[in-house]
C-alpha cells in the first residue's frame, strides 16, 4: 500500500461471506495496486463489496463530518469543564439540589453530577423545570435528535419494558404512576441522583401565564 496523504484514507467494504471466502483480501490487494490519488478532485479508490473500486468523494466528506462532530463535542466538553470550578466550602459534605431547564440526553448532566461527587458532595438531588421530554422537538433545536431513542426517557423506558413501554408514555410522564416512579428511580440510579423530580405541564402553563392552546407541548405529550 503506498503512503496515504494525511487528509485522505483508503476505505474498504465487503460482505461477510466475501471475507470468509478470501475475496476481501483479494479486492483489498488489487485496489492497493491501482490506487491513484487525484489532488484536484480529492477522491480515492475504494473497495466496495460487490462493486469493486469506485471513486468516493462522499465517503471522505462523511469522514470529515464525523471528525468535525467529534472535535466539536470534545470542545464543548472542555468548555463545560472549564466553567466548573469547585468552591469546596459550598460542596464538601453538603446535600445539593440541581435545577435545570430540562433533561434531554443527560450527557453533560451526568458529568456534572460526577464532578460534584468528586468534589465532596454528600448527596445530589435533581429537579427539572419542565416535564419529562418524551418526543424529539419537530420545530426547534431544543430537543431535536436524529432519533427519539437519544432521549434519556426513551432509553430508560426501553430498558424497563422494551418497545411495549412506548404505548404507555403518558403513564411514564406521570410521576404519580407506577411506571413514572420506576422511570424516575432508574434515571436516578443511572446518574447518581439522590432524588429526581419534574415539573408538570400544568405547572409550566401556570408559570408562563398563557392559555394552554397557545403553548407547544409536543415534546412532553406528543400533541401538536
**Class inferred from helices and paired strands:** mainly alpha
Report how far the terminal alpha carbons are from each other.
56 Å
Shape: globular
Strand content: 5-15%
State the strand order across the main sheet: 3-4-5
Describe this structure in words.
The chain is mainly alpha-helical and 224 residues long. The protein has ten helices and five strands, in the order H-H-E-E-H-H-E-H-E-H-H-H-E-H-H. The strands form two sheets. The protein has a three-stranded parallel β-sheet with strand order 3-4-5, covered by helices on one side. The protein has a two-stranded antiparallel ribbon with strand order 1-2. It starts with 15 loop residues before the first helix and ends with a helix. Residues 1-21 and 33-55 have low confidence and may be disordered.
For this entry, give a set of tags.
globular, disordered N terminus, three-stranded parallel beta sheet, 5 strands, 224 residues, 2 domains, 11% strand, mainly alpha, Rossmann fold
Characterize this entry briefly:
This protein has ten helices and five strands, in the order H-H-E-E-H-H-E-H-E-H-H-H-E-H-H. It has 224 residues and is mainly alpha-helical.
Topology at a glance:
Blueprint: H1 16-20, H2 23-34, E1 45-48, E2 52-55, H3 57-83, H4 88-91, E3 95-100, H5 107-118, E4 123-128, H6 152-161, H7 169-173, H8 178-191, E5 195-198, H9 201-208, H10 218-221
Parallel strand pairs: 3-4, 4-5
Antiparallel strand pairs: 1-2
